[in-house]
Amino acid sequence: MPTVPPGSIFVTDWHRSPESREYFNKILYKKKRRKFGLLEAPVMPPNLKADTVRYKVFISGKSGVGKTALAARLTGLEIPNVHYETTGMETSVVFWPVKLRESGRVLFFHFQLWDCGENVMCRFDHMLPSCEEQADAILLLFSFTDHGSFEDISNQMPRLTDPSDRVVRLVVGTKFDLFMHTDVTESEITAFQEVWGVPVFRVGGDVSSGMGEIAPLLNALAENLWHQDCAHASNSLSPPS
Question: What's the CATH number for 52-226?
Answer without folding.
Answer: 3.40.50.300
